[in-house]
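Feature request, filed as a ticket because there's no other form

It would be nice if the structure record came with a short human-readable summary line next to the tokens. Right now we just get the raw output. Example of a typical job, pasted below so the devs can see what we mean:
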Amino acid sequence: MAALVPILIGLTNKQTADWADPSVGALIAVGLAIAAVLVVVEARVTEPIVPVRLFGVRTFAVAVIAMFVVAMSFFTPVVFLPRWFQFVGGASATQSGYQILALIAGLIVAATASGQIVARTGRYKFVVLGAAAMLALGLFLLSGLRADTPLPLLYVWMFITGLGVGPMFAVLTLIVQASVAPRQIGTATSSLTLFQQIGGSVGLAITGSIFTSRILEEIPRQLATSGVPPQIAAGFSSSGTAALNRLTTVGDLGQAILAGAPAEARELEPLIPQIVAAIHRAFSLAADDTFAFGAFAAIAAFITLTLLRESPLKKRTEATAVTVAVRAEAVEPAD
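Raw output as currently delivered:
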């Protein structure tokens, strides 16, 4: 926690500050230094919280790193798509939950199918490599999201993304459990889950910064493109993140803009349709950048998974069973 909190706060502060700012760079450096101390200590103790020695097992290390990166990419659509449905599409919170069911459906289908394939063939490397490629493709397609993207097309992109995620969560767990001794399965599995959660947290901190930076750049640009007078457009971006929080609330954006405008600025009313459309476009383009980041993370996961040394799970399981049986006979008292 001491290592993660400064890193996450620093990444979050990047939304409004530069990397050289102490609230960003210094905090991240402190977190990394504490993480280095953690690694040194955990490598020496007999009962570590994070089993550093397990990372000496190549299959375990590759699977954990891949899970970390996959979590960075997966949590991006889970967070930003519902926001897009609510803000741009005008959906309620409940409706936005329904609308990401295409993503969840792809995840469930792929997780079930990949489990059956691995169980029947004992092979897993081609499954996770294909899943990483599918995830990268789905997120690449989502990076083309626009304010006027047809919903059926968006559902297809979401389903493809889900097809890439499902095998990752299901099969990587099996790989980790098969790569360690039986007495270490619980420790290895919990470590995988830990790095999955860390990856998601770090990914959301990064994408949050990406989203904020891009939308603050795009709002005045899109307003100018819509023909909104420069003096009015400047008012929407001059207050930075305060303006962003005010403009991206759920509800009738046009009414919210009019309610927050001073009495002498009522000439805004005829321009409200152009302003709303411009902000929706800016929001969509900012979300696109987060999906593009997720696609690059999925490509990084694919590259990482090419380092896997596949050992068929069936053979591994049979060998383990024989070893256990032999050991049991060896310790069984003679008649």
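Something like this underneath would help us a lot:
The chain has a mean pLDDT of 83.
Residues 217-281 form one domain.
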